[in-house]
Design brief:
Muramoyl-pentapeptide Carboxypeptidase, domain 2, 58% helix, globular, alpha+beta
Length: 163
């Protein structure tokens, strides 16, 4: 009973966000694989991130299709992976008809920073968004000219609506 009481008193003070936890795990696994297998290990991780992203994109597409909806960018945002409000601080702009997310804070990036492993977090960030979108609908395009794990001030994700 004392344990339950103390847990209630402490609350979430020492808990971390699950996406932060995932970032730490990803970075540690990537570091170990890269240390042991060099460039071949990094390429393996990159391929795994791409395959993971495409599979997740396929899952989102299946949800959207099962609801009788089209694989549009709008539906991608509605049925996408994360509750962005819990994992990021961002704003949305429309620039030249394209949707642009400006991400100021990211729980994944914070997790990489917490363990001083940004170099490994970059691998995830460099490939995941394009891979998920490709799995969802390969006709949709994204540009990511700025990434927090690269030391940039913001992540900029530009979803190309017009060609």
């Amino acid at each position: 009973m004392d344990t339950l009481k103390e847990m209630g008193e402490v609350g979430d003070k020492y808990k971390i966000n699950l996406f932060n936890f995932f970032a730490r795990l990803f970075c540690k696994l990537t570091e170990e694989v890269a240390s042991r297998f060099g460039e071949s290990g990094k390429e393996t991780i990159i391929n795994a991130v791409k395959k993971f992203g495409e599979r997740r994109g396929n899952e989102i597409a299946e949800i959207v299709k099962s609801l009788g909806k089209e694989l549009t960018l709008k539906n991608y945002f509605i049925y996408s992976t994360f509750d962005a409000g819990e994992t990021t601080k961002y704003k949305v702009n429309i620039v030249d008809g394209n949707v642009e997310l400006i991400i100021r804070e990211c729980v994944f990036c914070d997790g990489c920073k917490d363990w001083d492993k940004l170099e490994y977090g970059k691998i995830y960030c460099d490939y995941i968004d394009e891979a998920i979108l490709k799995g969802y609908n390969p006709n949709l395009k994204i540009e990511v000219p700025s990434i927090l794990t690269h030391g940039d001030k913001h992540c900029i994700q530009r979803y190309i609506v017009k060609d």
